[in-house]
Specification:
With 411 residues, this protein is mainly β. The protein has five helices and 28 strands. It has two domains: 66 residues, no CATH class; 311 residues, Methylamine Dehydrogenase, Chain H (7 Propeller), CATH 2.130.10. The strands form seven sheets. Strands 3-2-1-28 form a four-stranded antiparallel β-sheet, with no helix packed on it. Helix 2 crosses helix 3 and helix 3 packs across helix 4. It starts with 6 loop residues before the first helix and ends in a 6-residue tail after the last strand. The relative contact order is 0.14.
Length: 411
């Protein structure tokens, strides 16, 4: 015969956790949504069947990682709140970070302000911000154009060959760099004094932040045309070589300086963090995946790497966040999904990461703050292609991410 319950036991049994019934409902809804598909767009436009399948697989994969994998605990800590309740697409009504985002679409170059408002800047194929976001350097065919943030043309120069990969110098912004005819070329910030600097590979030049003691110094880093695995840095005022780096990460396809004198180089076989003299501070060469894209936080304290691998079920993408603590390099996977993700950007203050997921027509924003009481750590914005294709409804190409610039550009 069982022992009768005591009064204390009865009272304990009667206690329910805060919002227990709500939690049960949300958990049940989450599992149902995992089986049916990750998100339903706010506009109720259904994803094509392959996109719905990928989204459903991603949701199930997240649930499995959170429940089975010790390594998944870090993922759960970061993105678990985003799947609390019934996840829904949000409309593009605001950027979670400050500043303004450049977007390249078939319809041209667009600027998305922090309040979600969008402005088409013109029929340009690429663009880059000036140091304080007051101007945009844009390219189209053989032309380089400087625009105001509102899209008004400031100046234009033309070349015999196609113009690509523009970059505005940092600090005082006296000069711009771009690629044309297999060369990196330099011009003044008003479009004058256009001249050749060196033969260069098709990699966007990266301007170093001037040191505080010399705010007018302008130093640009680029990948030489005949040495794709190396990096050269040049003082453009004197044309003197200031650094040579050989990071041994395969052909380099991306360069980016942080505000605090750290250069991120991404190659086909890994990534490296370099100092102003070209010395290697950190280097990772993954064995089983290729690096698609990467970004360095404005303060240089974090590196986000987007890698892609292939398995029995096809392509899979992972976003890994690296952080140096003392002399140790720490890493954690903060997002993993089937298919191909195509870009990663830090917000101007470095508190958010933005990912583009073309196969599900989403942008995913991940909050990197460590505050435990954050209500949501991830946000998904849906129906992205339609936002930059006025008047079109079918066969929309996914837009690509440009620079996410400073607060001034959003004013």
């Amino acid at each position: 015969m069982s022992r009768p319950e005591s009064e204390i036991e009865r009272k304990l049994r009667a206690i329910r956790a805060p919002d227990e019934s709500g939690a049960e409902e949300r958990a049940g809804a989450l599992v149902r949504r995992a089986a049916a598909g990750l998100h339903e767009p706010a506009s109720r436009r259904r994803l094509p069947a392959p996109r719905r399948t990928l989204a459903a697989l991603a949701s199930v994969a997240v649930l499995a990682a959170l429940s089975l994998s010790p390594a998944g605990a870090a993922v759960g800590e970061l993105i678990g709140d985003a799947f609390d309740g019934e996840p829904e697409y949000e409309a593009l009504t605001a950027l979670p970070g400050s500043g303004t985002l450049l977007v390249h679409a078939d319809s041209g170059l667009w600027a998305v302000r922090s309040d979600g408002s969008r402005r088409r800047l013109g029929d340009y194929t690429d663009g880059a911000w000036s140091p304080h976001g007051l101007y945009v350097l844009a390219t189209a065919a053989n032309r380089l154009t400087a625009l105001t943030a509102a899209g008004d043309i400031h100046w234009t120069l033309s070349r015999p060959d196609e113009v690509t990969m523009p970059a505005w110098s940092r600090g005082l912004g006296y000069r711009v760099a771009y690629l044309s005819g297999g060369q990196i070329r330099i011009a003044a910030g008003d479009g004058s004094d256009d001249h050749r600097l060196a033969a260069a590979a098709a990699v966007r030049p990266a301007w170093r932040q001037p040191p505080p003691r010399d705010p007018g110094r302008e130093e640009v880093s680029f990948v030489p045309r005949r040495a794709r695995g190396s990096v050269r840095s040049v003082d453009v005022a004197s044309s003197k070589l200031t650094a040579i780096a050989e990071p041994r990460i395969g052909p380099i396809h991306s360069l980016a300086w942080s505000d605090r004198d750290r250069l991120l180089a991404i190659g086909s076989r890994g990534w490296a963090l370099l100092d102003h003299a070209g010395r290697i501070l950190d280097r990772i060469r993954p064995a089983a995946s290729s690096i698609v894209d990467g970004a360095i936080s404005p303060n240089g304290g974090r590196v986000a790497i987007l890698a892609q691998g292939y398995g029995a079920s096809g392509a899979r993408s992972e976003l890994t966040l690296y952080r140096t603590v003392g002399k140790q390099l720490h890493s954690r996977t903060v997002f993993s999904a089937p298919g191909v993700l195509s870009g990663v950007r830090f917000s101007p203050r470095g508190e958010w990461l933005l990912l583009s997921w073309p196969e599900t027509d989403q942008w995913v924003f991940i909050n990197l703050a460590t505050h435990r009481k954050l209500i949501r750590r991830a946000r998904s914005i849906g129906d992205i292609a339609a936002q930059f294709a006025p008047g079109k409804s079918d066969a929309l190409e996914a837009p690509t991410l440009g620079g996410w610039c400073c607060q001034a550009s959003g004013r």
